[in-house]
Design goal:
The structure is a homodimer.
Chain A lengths: L8 H10 L10 E5 L6 E8 L5 E7 L2 E4 L2 E4 L3 H16 L7 E5 L4 E5 L5 E2 H6 L7 H15 L7 H10 L3 H10 L18 H9 L2 H16 L3 E3 L8 E3 L4 E3 L6 E3 L2 H21 L3 H33 L10 H26 L5 H4 L4 H21 L7 H12 L1
Antiparallel strand pairs in A: 1-2, 2-3, 3-7, 4-5, 6-7, 8-10, 9-12, 10-11
Helix pairs in contact in A: 4-10, 7-13, 9-10, 9-11, 9-13, 11-13, 13-14
Amino acid sequence: MEQYRAFSTQEAIEYAGSLPGVFDAGETLSAEEIGDGNLNLVFRIRSDGSGRSVIVKQALPYVRVVGGGWPLSLDRARIESAALAKAAEVCPELVPQVYSFNQELALIVMEDLSDHIVLRKGLIQGKRYERLAEDLGTYMARTLFATSDLYLEPQAKKQLQVEFCNPELCKITEDLVFTHPYMDAETNNIDEAIRPFVARFLWSDTALKREVALLKHAFLTRGEALVHGDLHTGSVMVTAASTKVIDPEFAYYGPMGFDVGAMLANLLLNYVAQAGHRRDADECSAYRAYLLETVEQLWHQFATQLRLLHASQTSEEMAKTEGFFEIYLRNILQDSIGFAGCKMIRRIVGLAHVEDIDSISDKAIKTAAQELALRIGRELIMERQRFDSIEAVSAVVKRTEGA
Amino acid sequence: MEQYRAFSTQEAIEYAGSLPGVFDAGETLSAEEIGDGNLNLVFRIRSDGSGRSVIVKQALPYVRVVGGGWPLSLDRARIESAALAKAAEVCPELVPQVYSFNQELALIVMEDLSDHIVLRKGLIQGKRYERLAEDLGTYMARTLFATSDLYLEPQAKKQLQVEFCNPELCKITEDLVFTHPYMDAETNNIDEAIRPFVARFLWSDTALKREVALLKHAFLTRGEALVHGDLHTGSVMVTAASTKVIDPEFAYYGPMGFDVGAMLANLLLNYVAQAGHRRDADECSAYRAYLLETVEQLWHQFATQLRLLHASQTSEEMAKTEGFFEIYLRNILQDSIGFAGCKMIRRIVGLAHVEDIDSISDKAIKTAAQELALRIGRELIMERQRFDSIEAVSAVVKRTEGA
């Protein structure tokens, strides 16, 4: 058994070179570290001869944050590797291939996606991805259904739920998404320009905090499916022809709507941010229309595919009852919208911001975008139980924008 | 490490005699087997000299049922022992004391409650228990709160949830409570006299099955607290001055309302059965009034104590938000009422009946009681989301009785 140590570039090369079936013997390999080093080391190892490459991703035993850090379980590498394997069972084309996992070293060797770009960056640049809604809808429907009580025998599901018990990473979400943004917490990261608005608009709003408390309670208690747990636009890599979901280290058994909501929130954050990136009004409004269309298509793809899976593969007898699925789906929609609201707010007030908004250079536009994100987030949370279609999201966005 | 073997009476005596601190050396011990032997061996071991006695309970590796049996994990003895220990942390006076647990032998040595009687038998005899509502309300409030996300740090809760993963016993509930009664299943146990009514009233009712499917989904997915899992009137031992909750082998992380609902259902089953036991109309109606009062007091005791615990000991920051607890409590009420309906129906149609009804000698009265139980059960399930007070249960009972 190997002892854990954080790899140097040279160690990463040697490790990848020694794996059977990855590189040929005698290939000359080079490496670069491409991660930000906050949670993980990420090396790209490339053969100078064949041009083949792989990613070596190693978890670090701490989170590096502004002003310090805190220890964090290496077990998340096991979770990530196992979650990628579960996804590969139902949609191998939508996740990177895992070549090797080493538990002691907390290290995954996987497919290099350097021909892809991070979806968030593509959206900031105003790119359109025709496959995106269908691919992400497929990813969510298949991974969530296949790990749910609709499909799995309950005993198999309970075993998986134990395997994916992920208390340390859940705790990060519990604190940074569902708690700290609603109080003047040290971990918050608030632009001074909007601090008075945040104090008035979030911290004084008891009704909002109550609804967030209920959503947090759902996150804490409802083990519906193996969720990705961090499904934002930075966890998706794209080309025109391919979509790959990466980084499921936050995976755990939670509410299905948590994944759907994370993706909706990040598309809407990009929508809000476009005021700072597409300075031509027509161009901005056309791209925003594309984003709202993507929000709607994403949901419809998810819903359609989940419905098909339910109709053809549900094993849970009672869930086959006529009309059950419609209620089940509406509950996921309402959860998704509520979680989307929480995810929008945390990206403005909480520790981790999004580049979409933080990269806006005009300060007034940036502040307006932040306020708009908070307003939309709040509306989604407060109104979620009245939603019976995804189209109502666009209506909320437009109404809030016009207010 | 000892190898599992089902104990003989003599082995049970020797085992109890050898435990330090239970009996004095040299005491002459005798034993009787007092269990029904369907799931467990239960021996009472008594010292002829001192009169002291203990219970030795050993899990059997199968369930014995009419016409055969099926294997069942011995792990349930660990679950039972650990659940009794958890309860003893918060209400030691309301559970039997555990003296010893042996995992290999699946065996618990615990306090003998032979001065108590089973609550179900007391209720069939028309006895009243002044402490009952308060004691059971206390038991439920304390055990559920202490294992919930309101009180526990989320990481400690998740560990407990793994420790109490109980797939085999949950499966029994999933099948026998939430599935088989709603179809013409082999495990059902239906008096021929009500079979046509069952086919018409349950099996043809899609709206009812849909609601049961949603309650089953809650049972499968919602890990709110460590529930007893089988909290009927046969799992409670009483004297005028003492209440003890026993047999938590079905314990797992589930919805709080599942325990509350089980107790409500069994009180209401006794209510329905009184037509066959108190043949004097005034006496019957007075006892029924006592039972409905107990239903209401039980809820109020539970709610009051849960509210106090929440106000004084909640660690979950967001759950402290004004108004959160009222919604949380209303959700538990509505769940409890829905689960109560399921529990009533399964005791008429499903494998395991209750003595309250099965012991009615007059066939016409018994059949009428069974139909009334099904009608009340259905009303509770279908109307649960309109309930905002426990008093509405009495209204449903009286309305259904009069219909």
